[in-house]
């Protein structure tokens, strides 16, 4: 049985074109089994609350596991009850921002069948990429994420399921060259009340702090006169999109 875990993370963004720009910020993420979501005492719920509605499309009362299974069924993937583990952020004082959530989907025999990378932007939109189990994977970019990057190019995703260490890399490539690289790294910690309370001091309001850090860096890029890319108007039609990737 998989016990929930916490990862103290460092997220780094490196922009390589049209200007070089780098920034990092700290946070933390939960690693959970979707069939055994953490059950916290009521006094801890302000610091960690999981809402299925924060991920994927689904019926109002669907669990997150049901939403993942619905998504997989649209791509003809049947796990036959196999385990789904996920790396994501919980709501803190009612706020959450999950720029990247990862789901490792196993069949009943325990074999990894696929990985889902769910991306959220700051405009309330999300996009789910279905990736093959092989690492790394390649998938065309489909979601407008940053006003300094258009919806062009493809991602290379390396996202092995974490153990004692978390090490995820996503790079955006255009014309055969990387234009942007994001890394997510961290060390595993036991998920208990003591650790969760400690994280509120070392990384207070982590989801909000992460969202603010991204906006502040956007202002810095604007001050450096990096050209703004208008948001595509047709994206307003659909707030949940899905796309299948391939192994490299």
UniProtKB/TrEMBL annotation:
This chain's source organism reads Mycobacterium syngnathidarum
This protein's source sits in the domain of life called Bacteria
What name goes with this protein?
DUF1365 domain-containing protein
Please give the InterPro entries that the UniProt record associates with this protein.
Answer: DUF1365 (IPR010775)
